[in-house]
Amino acid sequence: MHVLVLEDDAKLAALLRAELEEEGHEVEVLADGDAGLQRALAGGMDLLLLDLGLPGLDGLDVLRRLRAQHTTLPVIVITARDGVEDRVAGLDLGADDYLVKPFSLLELKARIRALFRRTEHPLERVLCVGSLRLDRIRRTASYGERSIELSPREFQLLEVLMESPGEPLPRALIAERVWGYALDGGMNVLEVYVNYLRKKLRAIGLEPIRTLRGLGYVLEPAACELSAP
């Protein structure tokens, strides 16, 4: 994958280059908004990591002009601007994701993987992990022959986990996918809903959600297999 990094912090840009190249990606780094826009429009890139506080064109202007040319290049904004209005502006202008500095490189990599899963694979009506089944149209969940009654938030939470079975998901990423925004200072809300979901799954003999201390949660595929009678 070819990644364009538009970031004027040389230290962070070098770190991003090293981490992404270690993952097998080809990386170009530019520190100026005008030059970055021209490079993005020239084509050949699979992903743009875009800082907002750039010299020359501001990152939001880069994004606005990029989308005005009807390019579908995936864009993840990486910025210190953490206000809700900044997030809304970036997403409304066509960013695919928005990550606030300082951020974990593990979280950035998880967001990149999640973005390309959504891009490469059409939304499946039914998600299946082992014997656990989620119907996105009917909004129903089941395990084998047993139905699972879930609230809308519990359903969304299970949906996010089932989209990435076996993959560690950061708390912030899960929260944004379920609530549509970052739960600043309120990650305990996520923990409460994880506990609600665990309780309902445990009632039918399922315990597939594992806590990853300091990171988030993972849905274990092997734990979703229906045990033989």
SSE arrangement:
Layout: E1 2-6, H1 10-22, E2 26-30, H2 33-41, E3 47-50, H3 59-68, E4 75-79, H4 84-92, E5 97-100, H5 105-120, E6 126-129, E7 132-135, E8 140-143, E9 146-148, H6 152-163, E10 169-170, H7 171-179, H8 187-202, E11 209-212, E12 216-219
Keywords:
229 residues; alpha/beta; Rossmann fold; Arc Repressor Mutant, subunit A; five-stranded parallel β-sheet; four-stranded antiparallel β-sheet; 8 helices; elongated
Question: What does this entry look like structurally?
Answer:
The protein is 41% helix and 21% strand. It has 2 domains: 2-120, Response regulator (Rossmann fold); 126-224, Winged helix-like DNA-binding domain superfamily/Winged helix DNA-binding domain (Arc Repressor Mutant, subunit A, Orthogonal Bundle), CATH 1.10.10.10. With 229 residues, the chain is of the alpha/beta class. The longest helix has 16 residues, at 105-120. The protein starts with a strand and ends in a 10-residue tail after the last strand.
Short structural summary:
This protein has 229 residues and is α/β, with parallel strands linked by helices. It has helices spanning 10-22, 33-41, 59-68, 84-92, 105-120, 152-163, 171-179, 187-202; strands at 2-6, 26-30, 47-50, 75-79, 97-100, 126-129, 132-135, 140-143, 146-148, 169-170, 209-212, 216-219.
